[in-house]
Structures are given as C-alpha cells and as structure tokens.
Amino acid sequence: MPMDYASIKLLHQSAVALSALGFVVRGIASIQGSRWTQGRLAKTLPHMVDTVLLASAVALAAMLHLNPAHTPWLLAKILGLLLYIGLGIVAMRPRFGFKIRSIAWALALVVLSWIVSVAILKNPWGVFALIGYWISI
C-alpha cells in the first residue's frame, strides 16, 4: 500500500530527529574517546537511519514535483547536507585529534540547525533570512 504525503513527511521528520540525536550522542562519545563509537553497530545504525531519511526526502520531492535546479531552498538543503556530512566525517574520525574534531562537530550541528531552518522556512537563507529581516526593521 503506498504511503500518503503526511505519512512520508512524518517518517522523514522522525528520521531527521533520530539522525540528529544519534549524531549528538556519537559525537560527544567519540570526542571523549569512547570505544563503542568505533563498533559495528555505531557505524551501521546511523547509515540505516540516514537511508530512510534520504529515501523519504526523495519521495517527498518527487510527490511535490520539486527539482533542486528550480527550487533554491531544496538546493540549499542538499548543499548543506554535503557540508554536514563532510564535517561529520571529520568529527567522528579519531585521527583528526580532539580540537579539530570538536570544532567540526560543533560546526556540523550549526549546519544541521541551518538545514532544518531552511526546511521549515522554505528559504535558502534559512534562519539568516529572519535575522536579515529583523535587522532591516
């Protein structure tokens, strides 16, 4: 049975929340040097959640006939996602050292927050569009 838009959107939002929570927990533990973060489950489960997240995002975009080339906020989310992934990779790899990993993890959380603001506001500037609006008043 095909899922309706509301169900897929709820699935997507739930996957975002699970992915973000997992990133926060793994990031803190990884930066502190916890060994479990290098285990099989800690490396596999996030990919499973992120696969659901990405598949639901593609399904939503297809249902709404959104093309990133013609939808600036969606393109901004995709570019933000690539930056978030890159920062996340640095944050989770022990070879980069405490300081670099901590900075990458914090920046990844900032980028993630911005991506969520882009999704909510449907504006490629996300929360920065609101800041610009408030400054101009």
Mean pLDDT across all amino acids: 93
Helices and strands, in N-to-C order?
HHHHH
Task: Kindly give the count of domains.
Answer: 1
Q: Shape, please? A: globular
Derived structural class: mainly alpha
Give me the Rg, rounded. Answer: 16 Å
Number of DSSP-assigned strands = 0
Can you tell me the residue ranges where pLDDT is under 50 for at least 5 consecutive residues?
Answer: none
Our measurement of the CA-to-CA distance between the termini, rounded to an integer number of angstroms, reads 50 Å
Largest sheet: none
Strand content is under 5%
Tally of contiguous helical segments: 5
Helix content: over 70%
Structure description:
- The chain is mainly alpha-helical and 137 residues long.
- The chain has helices at 5-31, 40-63, 72-92, 98-121, 127-136.
- The chain contains five helices and no strands.
- The chain is globular.
- The mean pLDDT is 93.
